[in-house]
Specification:
Layout lengths: L10 E5 L17 H11 L3 E6 L2 H9 L5 E5 L5 H15 L4 E4 L14 H29 L2 E8 L10 H21 L4 E8 L5 H7 L4 H6 L9 H12 L10 E4 L14
Parallel strand pairs: 1-2, 1-4, 2-3, 4-5, 5-6, 6-7
Helix pairs in contact: 1-8, 3-4, 4-5
Length: 268
């Protein structure tokens, strides 16, 4: 469900708004969280700038938007590229009302096997690109006393899966960046929040864990299924909108109840 016109007249930038396969069954355009977010914001009336390391993937998202948009190439590992993408958006539309920091990479190594190179790569993409993007957009928001940041996080930033130290640490740091912005600039009209995602049936999850693992992933969720990118996008749209005008510094957990459950053995 969309709320028509809720974001009319607003300009949004989605960092990590492209997507590539594998797609869901019957899906012509692979639907990752960033692409679903861009489509949802546009469906609610926003003009959307889509940033992705692959300009073609960003353009594919823009081509599917309900409103005119702009595709920009951005390398999350390159600080200058992160800043330049925001400048391109500002040059095109003069202001940004909404910035969604969605780009992220997973990791695989526990503490004993964690490598420095993987740690630095995770930090650059999952944290540094986000604060640099926010920093580049902040001044124009402060000038208008208005702006909303939404960071796309993970329950790995709150709970450990024992799988990847770099992913868990950087996702926790991402939430710290969000809270800093929220508290520091609240009195100047700036809000910052995060959606903290659990098991989502996204291309990233299918690449990392395989489509064949979907039943096992669904089994750990009290709701009995994986979430969808569209459901993640709905939560982002709420936090970006004036319906959340008195909400800032919060981590909205979107995980089907996983973080609320106590592990127990299956019934015999």
């Amino acid at each position: 469900m969309t709320v028509d016109g809720r974001l009319a007249g607003q300009v949004a930038y989605v960092l990590g708004g492209g997507s590539h396969g594998p797609a869901r069954d019957g899906e012509a355009l692979p639907m990752g969280n960033g692409r679903a977010i861009a489509l949802r914001l546009a469906a609610e009336g926003a003009t959307v700038v889509v940033g992705d390391i692959d300009l073609g993937r960003a353009q594919a998202t823009v081509d599917a938007l309900a409103t005119p948009g702009l595709a920009v190439a951005v390398d999350a590992c390159d600080p200058q590229s992160c800043q330049a993408a925001v400048e391109t958006a500002l040059d095109a539309y003069r202001h940004l009302d909404i910035v969604v920091c969605n780009v992220g990479i997973s990791g695989r190594e526990p503490l004993k096997a964690q490598t420095l190179s993987e740690w630095e790569y995770s930090e650059a993409v999952n944290v540094r690109s986000h604060w640099l993007t926010a920093q580049a957009a902040l001044e124009s928001m402060l000038a208008r006393s208005r702006g909303a940041f939404v960071f796309v996080g993970s329950t790995a930033g709150l709970l450990s899966s024992r799988r990847s130290l770099s992913y868990e640490a950087t996702k926790a740091a991402q939430l710290a960046v969000m809270r800093h912005i929220a508290v520091r600039y609240a009195a100047r009209g700036i809000r910052a929040n995060a959606v903290v995602l659990g098991v989502i049936d996204s291309p990233l999850v299918r690449r990392e864990f395989g489509a064949e693992g979907a039943p096992a992933r669904a089994a750990v969720v009290p709701m009995g299924r994986e979430g969808t990118p569209e459901e993640a996008a709905a939560a982002v749209a709420f936090l970006a909108s004036d319906d959340a005008a008195y909400v800032t510094g919060q981590s909205l957990i979107v995980d089907g109840g996983v973080s609320a459950s106590w592990p127990s053995p299956p019934k015999g």
